[in-house]
Amino acid sequence: MTSPRRTFAIISHPDAGKTTLTEKLLYFGGAIHLAGEVKARGQNRRARSDWMKIEQQRGISVTSSVMTFEKDGVTFNLLDTPGHEDFSEDTYRTLTAVDSAVMVIDAARGIEAQTRKLFEVCRLRSVPIITFINKVDREGRPPFELLDEIADILALDVAPMSWPVGMGGLFEGILDLTTGKVSRPEGDSRAFHGKVDDAPTLPAEIAEEIELAQAGYAEFDGEAYRNGDLTPVYFGSALKDFGVAELIDALSRHAPPPRPQPAEPAPVSPENKEVTGFVFKVQANMDPQHRDRIAFMRLCSGTFKRGMKLTPTGHGKPIAVHSPILFFAQNREVADEAFPGDIIGIPNHGTLRVGDTLSERADVRFTGLPNFAPEILRRVALKDPTKTKQLRKALDDMAEEGVTQVFYPEIGSNWIIGVVGQLQLDVLLSRLDAEYKVAAGLEPAPFDTARWITAEDPADLKAFMDLNRSAMAKDRDDNPVFLAKSAWEVGYVADRYPKVRFLATRER
């Protein structure tokens, strides 16, 4: 029996329309009741998934969020991810928790750098992708050019499922290639209000385009899609409501239900009776009034019941999960039970961390959630020295979430933070001020990059650390870290110490 669960992420380059599409999926799925909340006044004008202060100020998503909704007997778990490349770590970890993805492409810009990076992450995990080419009601590139670009750059077969009848000023609707019906724009806004032309007369050039497309591109093949070899492509306009209902229908009919998850000693099937799951994200202060800390857990097998005890790999002591949460962006409700594919939130006070496996019997560990070596290092300078304790708490919290990494040098008292992208530094300072009431600045660090170090013989590791003490630090888990002035220095030192391994990634 196929599970009525669809757990998927939306990936895109910034400004492709991902947040608008997210909101319309929620609206069409019945999860919100006001169309166009992005345009409403006050708090409602924020997309429901962008709740953090800096997100609202800048109009970008900087943290992954989870939204659950139901339609026609299917439960959808939608994971919204940051589009900006500076938050690629958060996005990567989120993609470990989904079974499929929707890739949003701007019809005028085609595939952009971040889209390609995120696609490669999906390919590593064989995550099947549905493509949504957005903004066809505006001037854009020809459909053939967009489809060929997807096929060439991403090395995917493409199967067009719909086709734009004109674009930009000539836009006259979207043709469903399966039914032959056209969804027509109406009114001054030229939006879709439900008008469907059952027997459309198409302009000769559009009819010719469709004939060429159906002859030249692959037919949809469910197995090829689920294997990650083919992407069905839908054209539409999230802002004007074209193609959104079809996208939900495609996810319901074609997207895979919960899949087996990579683990040791063996992959975990969703059919397993024991409850297992892994934490792919920790978020502090979703409710600033309560200083809360929520671990997002992807349930992989078994039927979770409220109050049951699960053992985290982190410390091995069973914890009772009394108040599990189902999410609707920042809103939440207590979950009495959950099933494989569901994302539940577990309130805790620092006991759960990203990468932790939770299980009934503590005999399994999920794999594949890495830390990445930071590309930018900075010292944190407190403006009020009496706030040292609050700063350490804040940095530990945000390191636990994966926003930053914190390194404590062996020599000197200035803590060093590491990030993958510049925008993460802005988020750090914004959250220090807004959530922890800590005023701080950032100063250049004498180092440029960091590597975790390890060696087969502990004596070799100790000898290296003793000789390079001024460049040594510990991360928040007390793992030894070598701080280097440049990537060249990393290579030079690695050549000099062949018995020591310098790691750019470390599995959590």
From TrEMBL:
Q: What is its main location?
A: cytoplasm
| Record has Membrane as a keyword | no
GO terms for molecular function, please?
A: GTP binding; GTPase activity; guanosine tetraphosphate binding; translation release factor activity, codon nonspecific; translation release factor activity, codon specific
Tell me the Gene Ontology biological-process terms attached to this UniProt entry. regulation of translational termination
Binding residues for GTP, per the UniProt record? 12-19, 80-84, 134-137
Record keyword Nucleotide-binding present: yes
Q: Which keywords label this protein?
A: Cytoplasm, GTP-binding, Nucleotide-binding, Protein biosynthesis
Protein name (Swiss-Prot/TrEMBL):
Peptide chain release factor 3
Source organism: Sphingomonas yabuuchiae
